What we know:
Layout: E1 2-5, E2 25-26, E3 29-30, H1 36-48, H2 51-61, E4 64-67
Parallel strand pairs: 1-4
Antiparallel strand pairs: 2-3
Amino acid sequence: MRRAVNVGLLAEGEDAVDVGDWVPIHVGFAMSKIDEEEAKSTLEFLVQLGNPFEEELAELEGSRIELRPPRPRR
């Protein structure tokens, strides 16, 4: 399974993302660029959520997330 992640909100300037950057994703959109420490803290919180998070992780393990450039604006 593949998941497309729209990085259009973070496509320019200091917030521009690249392969290897940490970004929280919500409904297919990269929301912000965060550092590794914040990513670890967020992951710890999600693990505490238990079963719903475990189910989501199982789905993610079977998917491949690719960084795609944003579509040109019209």
